[in-house]
Amino acid sequence: MKRELLVLIALMIGLLSGCLNDDYADQNNADQEKIKAYIEKNGLSLDYDPNSGIHYKILSLGDTTRRPTADSSLITVNYEGRLLTDSIFVKGDSVEMNYTRQPIGFQLGVSSIGEGGEIFMILPSLVGYGSASFVTDTPYQTTVPPFSVLVYEVELLKVGSK
Fold it and tell me: What is the residue range of 118's domain?
């Protein structure tokens, strides 16, 4: 009886994980189509990272010996975050933030530049805020819907605390 129960549990886990993987793939495909349309509409020429799905352009590399890591969790940035509708949901100058508390796509993009560098990036929802939905508490009061593709422009001013 125990063995049959374990086999049944293993089968259920396998089925559920297969569905989740299909959902992730479907969401990523939908995001990539939206991103490609945005790139074409705006005449952008961006690089693409197939592992993360991020489309990006490094505007300035900066000092690559001073890159953010999980160990240097505080960074200071000038940045703007928009939705594909070009609605700004966040914007700030000389903002000190915890690097590790940002969406994984933001971390990946910003870690590719050094202090003084700038990057433009488009994040698919799975490396953005995923299924989260919220209203920003910035002056923009923008609703970020679930599975939103995010557009960021970031200038990395400083790695580490002020």
Answer: 2-159
Q: Are 82 and 89 in contact (CB under 8 A)?
A: yes
Query: Confidence band (pLDDT; 50, 70, 90) for 20?
Result: very low
- What is the rounded distance in angstroms from the CA atom of residue 122 to the CA atom of residue 84? 9
Least confident of 64-73, 81-90, 99-108: 64-73
**How many structural domains is the chain composed of?**
1
Q: What are phi and psi for residue 99, nearest 5 degrees?
A: -55, -40
Give the C-alpha separation, 98 to 72, whole Å: 9
Tell me the CATH number at 74. 3.10.50.40
Q: From start to end of the chain, where are the E strands?
A: 47-49, 54-60, 74-83, 88-98, 118-123, 134-135, 143-144, 150-159
pLDDT > 50? residue 104: yes
Please identify which residue in the block is written with the tokens 């352009």.
57
3 state DSSP class of 95: strand
pTM: 0.84
Whole-angstrom distance, CA of residue 144 vs CA of residue 88 = 10
Q: What is the pLDDT of residue 162?
A: 59
